Here is the input.
Amino acid sequence: MTLRLAFMGTPDFAAASLAGIIGAGHEVITVYTQPERPRGRGQASVKTPVHRLAEQFGLIVRTPENFRDPRVITQFESLDLDAAVVAAYGQILPRRALNAPRLGCLNLHGSLLPRWRGAAPIQRAIMAGDEVTGAQIIQMEYELDTGPVLMSEVVPITKTDTAGSLHDRLMVTGADLWPRALAALERGTLKAVRQSEHGVTLAGKITRGEARIDWRRSAREAANHIRGLSPFPGAWFELSNNGKLVRVKVHFARPERGEGEPGEVLDNQLLIACGHGAVRLTRLQREGRDVMDAGAFLNGFSVEPGAVLA
Here is the structure.
């Protein structure tokens, strides 16, 4: 017997999970994803990665603007689901929706709960200097990311990880968890473990203001901050070039020895002083340009020792 499921998700992170669930042979009755949004310079409407994948498999796709709409909930209740599986959907499900499937709603989360409950667990883990994180499937409750853990996989965070590379590893790990978790759910052997209320941390959305690099931090903190915001939204600084203030995003940096005033350029290879130690900027991006390594960046943009980055 296969489970009768609805899938809810939006970005690539969720599309990998949908592919894994379909591959395991479960019956996906319908797929919920965010509506088409204008993207790019032409502002053409673009379907989400989940939407495009679902259409490839001939699945019914629904794109409600607001899942709190009573008509949307009533339609969802009528599906007679065993469970709903959720991965980075982007909408909050009301209590009626959570209670509609026979076995409830399950969610894939990119951290080891209760650490980093919230919207940006991958970025926050790197920014905080964590050495491990993980992918977990939890039973959804109305409160954000508080439900019991059903299945978990630990994932190490390396010193060269960015939010982008860690995202991709967690995406694969999470997609691999679903078939195992759903098989156990089908057998009735999936065990729920309540989260501890000790060590709770919140992973709030990344704000535009906090993406600016604070050179007063230690070198390790600055490097973690940069890696945690790479590739998006990108940690940034400003530098005067020919009398014009230019914004530059940094996509990777590593701590090194060095002393100077915070933000001071210490050599001709982008070693920048921090509050303690220094960071070497190795991948950068000027406004309107592609990401490039430090050598290519310096070929077209002079950053002299003694300059101060703002």
